[in-house]
Design the sequence.
């Protein structure tokens, strides 16, 4: 199968590596140093117990890619999604499947502008990976993926064969919203307060804030035809600040973007999405409004 | 007149200095270095056009003061008010008047635990001053005070005679709440985001957040018998981020406490008061809840 991975950051490069065992895999990126180094020296990849150099992957600058492919896997930053699809629209044939595992809300509408609905496979990924520098990634956990769509089974077979555990579910939207609640709580608030998740443990009003944010996401989800389980989601959110959760000492990805790399965040696809849709539907979303306001002030201050 | 100023920080020391021209003024404080230096070397005071050394003021550690006085002026931090009044309760005779110009809400109830209601004069002060170190203050503006109460006229006469412009108003509660809205917006948010007021100018959703916070304060004010003018207050709040407002480049006092001096803040007497009262009255106050949560997480992180 011929696969194009869009975005050769931590996640994109890790998926490209695993898939390249049995498939022809190309990656496109906008970071020239990354593209050149993958082509020149191969992709350096560190897995749990081994480190190797993958020289099977070809890399291109996004605007230079002109081939038709069977499967496109999207791993750009949310705010780059629309622009990337526009640049790459000639890559899609009638049979090209598109897999989106990005965090955040509203991506399916963006993808539908360029790809027919039945070819889109949506999902979530619990794989974790880190970027050490150009053409240098660490795949720190295999986690698993959960996907749905007309061609989900076909895509899952490819991923499973490559060693990326992937389950097909009848509707992944609930999982997407649940994960958005998690990110809309911790990604945003840990970025605003420059804290780890564990720093929030036992904080005054924590449970109220967690439930309030989930409630706002749920009201918008209902309007968009998704009814995720609030109690189950709260339990997943609640556990994250406790020492039972081994990731609680980490800084979430939005913190890395804004605080460490002075980059814009994905707020518009998390709390900002809820805030914007709340205004469209006439639903008050004060928590998400204030969080979005705060993140945008911080972006204005630190993004170069 | 014999006057005791409680708290010899920037404001307390400035008031003590001005009042000491025509009155016997003592100050009490909990900071030994400050007390000792005032007694040993006098209070160094810088006014707009002059710098002098006031040796007329006697200073005491709070627990050592045992005299009866005619007027007590409270200039401790809000969170120290109850404890200070308890320590000093033997200072009040039946005729002792108590003046409170502190920022924040709920102080009158605390004072009433120790002083009969008719002897209490409440107000706001627009005087600004800074503390340079022990026994060393800068009185940067004379501003004015606004007070009300049975003995407001008598207290205003003393303040005016000392060169501190003071107006008597029939009810100062509206001004106290208006000022609390200003502080509940900028003190808290500039502390959370580590920004100046001017950094918020033109921020996404700014006007909605400003109006939302004022609305929450107003709902609690109504429950407590105060109906301040929301539109007038919004206009005062709105102007604060603009370059027309010469203070917009400053960091508010809560920022100084938490970010600069790693001290606890007055949040419980601003947004935290609204949040707590909202729960008592069954009124949702999501903005104040989230702001209080955020400030308390930051306090937990930085207060030594």
Sequence:
């Amino acid at each position: 199968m011929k696969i194009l991975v869009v975005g050769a950051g931590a996640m994109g490069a890790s998926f490209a590596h695993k898939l390249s065992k049995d498939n022809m895999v190309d990656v496109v990126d906008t970071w020239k140093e990354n593209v050149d180094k993958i082509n020149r020296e191969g992709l350096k990849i560190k897995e749990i117990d081994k480190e190797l150099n993958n020289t099977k992957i070809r890399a291109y600058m996004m605007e230079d890619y002109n081939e038709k492919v069977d499967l496109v896997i999207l791993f750009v930053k949310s705010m780059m999604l629309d622009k990337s699809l526009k640049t790459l629209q000639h890559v899609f044939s009638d049979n090209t499947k598109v897999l989106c595992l990005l965090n955040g809300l509203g991506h399916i509408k963006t993808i539908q502008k360029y790809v027919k609905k039945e070819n889109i496979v949506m999902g979530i990924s619990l794989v974790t990976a880190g970027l050490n520098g150009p053409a240098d990634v660490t795949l720190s956990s295999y986690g698993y993926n959960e996907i749905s769509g007309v061609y989900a089974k076909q895509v899952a077979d490819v991923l499973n064969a490559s060693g990326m555990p992937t389950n097909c579910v009848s509707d992944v939207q609930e999982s997407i919203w649940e994960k958005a609640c998690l990110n809309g709580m911790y990604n945003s608030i840990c970025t605003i307060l420059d804290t780890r998740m564990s720093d929030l443990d036992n904080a005054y009003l924590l449970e109220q804030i967690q439930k309030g944010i989930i409630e706002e996401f749920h009201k918008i989800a209902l309007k968009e035809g998704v009814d995720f389980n609030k109690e189950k989601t709260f339990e997943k959110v609640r556990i994250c600040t406790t020492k039972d959760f081994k990731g609680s000492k980490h800084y979430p990805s939005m913190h890395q973007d804004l605080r460490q790399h002075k980059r814009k965040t994905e707020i518009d696809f998390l709390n900002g999405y809820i805030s914007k849709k709340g205004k469209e539907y006439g639903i008050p979303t004060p928590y998400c409004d204030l969080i979005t306001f705060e993140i945008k002030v911080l972006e204005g201050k630190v993004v170069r």
About this structure: Chain A has two domains: 2-168, 172-299.
